[in-house]
C-alpha cells in the first residue's frame, strides 16, 4: 500500500509515519513544500515501511496523484482554517482519481462541509474521511454509546494535551486565528457563538474509585465537534468544547490576549 502524507515531515504527519513504523509492506510518500526537510525526515526514519521524500504543494495534488499513484492520501498539512476558496481541492482530486482520502482537520467549518462529498465518494468507491482525530471522533463515539440509554442534551468536553506533546507551527496558526474571534456553537437550544479562548471553565476528572486527576483550566476552542456532533443528537441544546494546555500561567496569558482582541 502506498500512502501519500501531505505534511509528512510536520509534527502530526511525522507522528503518523512513526506510528506506522512497525507495519511492513507499505510505502510512505513524505510530502511537503521543502524537499530538504522531507529528505532529512526520511534520513532519520527507522521503521519497516519504505519512505520516499517528495516535494509537493497540495495545490499540485492532481499531477501528484497521476504520477505517484498512491492508494491513500492523508492531509496532515493545514492550517485547515485557511484553505481558502478551493478548500476541498485535495478531496475533489482524490474522488476524481478514485483514491481514498482522510485528513486530520481541526477546523469546524472545513469538517462540517465534507459531508457534501459523501455521495460522490461512495459512487467512486472510496472513503473521504475528515477530522480523523480524537476531536471529534472520540467525542462522537462516546456520545453515540451513551445515547443508547439516555438523551444527550448538554455536552461539555475537553482535551488536555500533555506538556510533552509537540505543537506544530500550523497548530499555532490555527489557534491564533480563532483566539478572540467568534466560535459557532449551540447554546440554549439556538445557534450562537462564543469567543475563542476567552471563555474558560475549570474541571476535575474524577473516575469513581480512582484518585481524581489534577483540576484543569479549559478554554473554548473552535473544533469540529461543535458543528458535527449536534445533528447526531436531536435533543441537544448546548455544546462547549475546551482545551486545557499547560503550564496554566501561559494558558492564562493566552486568555488575556484573546480577550484583548475580542
Ligand atoms: N484534529 C486534530 O486533533 C489536530 C490536532 C493537531 C493538529 N491538527 C492540524 O493538523 C495540521 C498540522 O499540524 P502540525 O502540528 O503537524 O503542523 P506542522 O508541524 O506545522 O506541519 C505542517 C506540515 O505541512 C506542510 N505543509 C504546509 N503547507 C503545505 C502545502 N501547501 N502543501 C504541502 N505541505 C504543506 C509543512 O511543510 P512545509 O511548510 O515545508 O510545506 C509541514 O510539514 C494543522 O492544520 C493542525 O491544525 C489537527
Could you walk me through the main structural features you see in this protein, from its secondary elements to its overall organization?
The chain has 262 residues and is α/β, with parallel strands linked by helices. The chain has 2 domains: 2-129, NAD(P)-binding Rossmann-like Domain (Rossmann fold, 3-Layer(aba) Sandwich); 134-261, Dihydrodipicolinate Reductase, domain 2 (2-Layer Sandwich), CATH 3.30.360.10. The chain has 10 helices and 12 strands. The chain has helices at residues 11-19, 35-44, 61-68, 89-97, 108-113, 118-124, 134-146, 169-178, 225-228, 248-261, and strands at residues 2-6, 27-32, 50-55, 72-75, 100-103, 128-129, 154-159, 182-187, 190-195, 200-203, 216-220, 238-243. Helix 3 (61-68) runs parallel beside helix 4. The chain starts with a strand and ends with a helix. The mean pLDDT is 95.
Strand order of the largest sheet: 3-2-1-4-5-6
Report the β-strand fraction as a percent range: 15-25%
Q: Could you describe the largest sheet, including whether it forms a barrel? A: 6 strands, parallel
Q: Which kinds of small molecule does this entry bind, naming each only once?
A: NADP nicotinamide-adenine-dinucleotide phosphate
Give the full name of the CATH homologous superfamily of the largest domain: NAD(P)-binding Rossmann-like Domain
Helix content: 25-40%
CATH fold naming of the largest domain = Rossmann fold
Output the structural class.
alpha/beta
Cα(first) to Cα(last) distance is 47 Å
The top-level CATH class of the largest domain is Alpha Beta
Give the topology string: H per helix, E per strand: EHEHEHEHEHHEHEHEEEEHEH
Mean pLDDT: 95
Apparent shape: globular
